[in-house]
User: What shape does this take?
Amino acid sequence: MTKQFTDPTLCSSDITPESSYLNRRQFMKSAVAGSSALLAAQPLVSKASDFVGVDTFMSAEESGWALQAPDVLTPFTDVSGYNNFYEFGMDKSDPARYASAMTLDPWSIRISSDGGETADIQFEDLLRAMDLQERIYRLRCVEAWSMVIPWNGFPLAELLRWLNPEGSYRFVQFRTRYTRSEMRGTRSFSSVIDWPYQEALRMDEAMNALSFIAVGLYGKSLPAQNGAPLRLVVPWKYGFKSIKSIASIHFTNRQPQTSWQSIAPHEYGFYANVNPEVDHPRWSQRYERRLPSSLFSPNRIPTRIFNGYGEYVADLYKDLDLRQYY
Ligand code: MTE
Assistant: This one.
C-alpha cells in the first residue's frame, strides 16, 4: 500500500516547465539501472518481504491534493544548480560541476550499531524493498535561502524498521561516502570539515512521519549534486541536517557529534530546528530568500517556526528549551 503525504499547502500542479515527470515504471527502471549482482540479504535485513512492491510511485497530482499555495515549486535548474555539497567545493555551482566524479554504482551502505552488529546493504536491494512516494517539502538552509522540492523516496521510519536492529537505540547516525580521489573539495586546503560529513537524529525524530530518504527529485533519479543515490531530508530542520550520499548508518545510545556542530558549536547545534526567533550569531533567521531570487526580485519571505511543519513535529520538543537546544 502506498502511503502518501504531502503538505496540503504545497502542490505540484504549480510545476514549472522543467518538471517533466517520468512515469513511475521509468523512474523505477532508471533508479535501479546498472544494478550489479545482488548480494544475499545480511542479518540486519530481516523483513524485506514486508515491504516489497515497486509499482507505487505516485505524484502529488495523482494523490489529489488541491492547489492553494503561496509555495511554488523551485525550478529543476535551481534545485540541481545551486547546491551545498562541500565534498565537491564551496561554491554553489561546484557540486553541479564536479559531483558527477562520484562513482554511484556499486553503492553499498554499512549498517552498524553500538551492540556490534554490522552489515553491508546494496543500494539496489534497498530500493527494491521500499515503496516509493513523492513528498513536496520546503528546504530551508541555515544560510537563509530556501526552495520547494518534489522529492521521490520513502520514509526514513520504513527504512529503519526494515533494518530492524537488535535492541533499541536513542540515536541514528549517518555518514556520507568519503572518497578523497573523487571529491575535490575534501582535498582542498580551505576545507574545514573533518571528513566524512556526519549527521544524526534522535530516534523519535528519525521515526517521525516527515523524515524522508530521497532517491529522486522531480521524478528522476537524484542528481549527484543533490546527494545521489540516497540522502536524508528533514524538512523542519536547517538543510545541513539533510545529509547527502549516505554510506553508513549507525544505531547508538550516545548523542553523536555532527559535522557542523564540531566545527562551530555556538553557531550550529545538534537540533538545528528552523526557528525565526533564534538567530545565527552572525545573521538573522527571521527571513529567507526563496529561490529563484535576484537583486531586483529578492523574494524575501518570513521564516516559520519548524519551517511551517510545527503541526507534525512540535510535540517532539515540548520539553526542550529551543534557545538552549538550537
Ligand atoms: N551533505 C553533505 N555530505 N555535504 C554537504 O556539504 N550540505 C548540507 C546538506 N547536506 C551538505 C550535505 C547543506 S548546508 C544543505 S543546505 C543541503 O545539503 C543542501 O541540499 P541541496 O544542495 O540538495 O539543496
Summary: The longest helix spans residues 24-32. The mean pLDDT is 84. The chain has one domain: 42-314. The two ends are 37 Å apart (CA to CA).
